[in-house]
Every structure is written in structure tokens, then in C-alpha cells.
Amino acid sequence: MNRRHWARAGGILIVAGMSLLPATGADLEVIGPDGRRILLKDDGTWRYVEAKDKGKDKEPAQKPGDKGEVVLRLERKTEVGSSCRYELRLVNNLPYEIRSLAPAFSARRANGVVYDMVLSAFQAIRPGDSQSQEILFRGIPCRDIARVQVLGGDRCVMGDLDRFTIATGECLAKVRVVASDLVRFEKEVKDDKDVKGDKEVKGDKEVKGGK
After folding, report:
1. Are 127 and 92 a contacting pair, CB within 8 Å?
2. Residue 92: which of 132, 135, 151, 150 has the closest Cα?
3. Quick one: how many helices (H) and strands (E) in the chain?
4. 207: Cβ–Cβ under 8 A, 6 or more apart, which residues?
């Protein structure tokens, strides 16, 4: 078929496609005789669909770890004699299983001193599921705990992270700690001043030793 016949066939196809527009009330895409894609507009016009237009509707590809998050909540506290017990819930909103995650929890007094530290291991939590664990701070009543902080959790097994991942903080970075009305509940954040202070003290000791 020569170019003239192609043009005639294409014109017939466009006219036929436009006859459908009043019924659909929306743009219509058809394939021309030469294989090119044609967009028939509901205003009676038409145009060829370029390859770049086809890619506009596509969303950028997401990595497995970009969707969702892990949510950690402190749901209940109970006085146990002179000790304090908290109930935790970890919700897995990631698109993959949390095979193992064992963060540490520290109990701090009002003056900021860490009184006790415990570990809690969450295991085999499938996407969309949650798991509860309890932690017990011995020898300190709940009223004397001003803050519970979440730290550590390295060597977790989930997604692209495993026990051989040496980067510090990668596991806990995927966890969002929700504030609680029961006690101040948060991730531990290392103060830059504390880091600088440690270096300065170390330097003073080295100078004194040199004397």
C-alpha cells in the first residue's frame, strides 16, 4: 500500500474513532494503519502520540525499601513491685518480612542518668502484621522513669539488611518511634557537644601524659 492509501486509511480510522467520542465523553487512543498511536481528543482534534508522551504517565521506580515504614509504639505500663513493665508493639508496614530486629531500651531518671537497659527481640513479622513484646526495668518504679529511649538494633535481618551489615543505625533508621502519653518515648540521639567533649577530655589526658 502506497503513502496515499495509508493516508486515506488513516483518515477513515480517525473519522470512525471521532464518531465514538460523543458516547464516551473522553479522549480515545487508537492505532493507525502504520502502527503509530493516535490520540483522538473529545474536542474533535487529534494528534500522534509521541514516545515521550507515553512515559509521562509512568511513576519513577521505587526501591524495595522506599515504601512503608516500621512503627514502634509503647502501649501500656504496669507497676511490678519496685520495677516497671512496658508493653511494646512493632508494626511492619514494609513490603518485606522483618526476620529479626532487636533494639535496646534505656530507662532514664529525670536528671538524665541511665538506670537500666534491656533488649527486646522482634522476629518473623510479615508485611502488614504486628508483634507485641514486654520489657521490664528492674529496681526502679514507673514514677521514677522520666524517659524511655530506643537505641541499637544493628545486625537486623530485613530487606537488604542482614547480620553482616556493618553500617551503624541503618536498622533503626527504618523505625518510626511514636510518642506516648505514658512516658517520654523516643530514639536516642547522640549530642554533638557530647562527642566534642569526649574528644577534648581525651586530648587533655594525652597532653598531661606527655608532660
Report:
1. yes
2. 132
3. 4, 14
4. none
Walk across the sheet containing 70-80 and list its strands.
130-137, 83-92, 70-80, 175-177
Q: Which residue has the cell 512503608?
A: 68
Around Cβ 104, how many Cβ atoms within 10 Å? 17
C-alpha cell at 171: 536498622
CATH superfamily of the domain spanning 70-189: Immunoglobulins (2.60.40.10)
Tens-level pLDDT at each residue, the chain (211 residues): 555 554 555 555 555 555 554 554 566 777 776 667 777 777 777 777 775 554 444 444 444 434 588 999 999 999 999 999 999 999 999 999 999 999 999 999 999 999 999 999 999 999 999 999 999 999 999 999 999 999 998 889 998 888 777 778 889 999 999 999 999 999 987 654 443 333 443 444 444 444 4
pTM, to two decimals: 0.58
Q: What are the residue ranges spanned by the domains of the chain?
A: 3-54, 70-189
Q: How far is CA 145 from CA 90, 177, 190, in A?
A: 22, 18, 20
Cα–Cα dist 45/17, whole Å: 11
Distance CA 193, CA 191 (A): 5
The C-alpha atoms of residue 117 and residue 139 are separated, in whole angstroms, by: 12
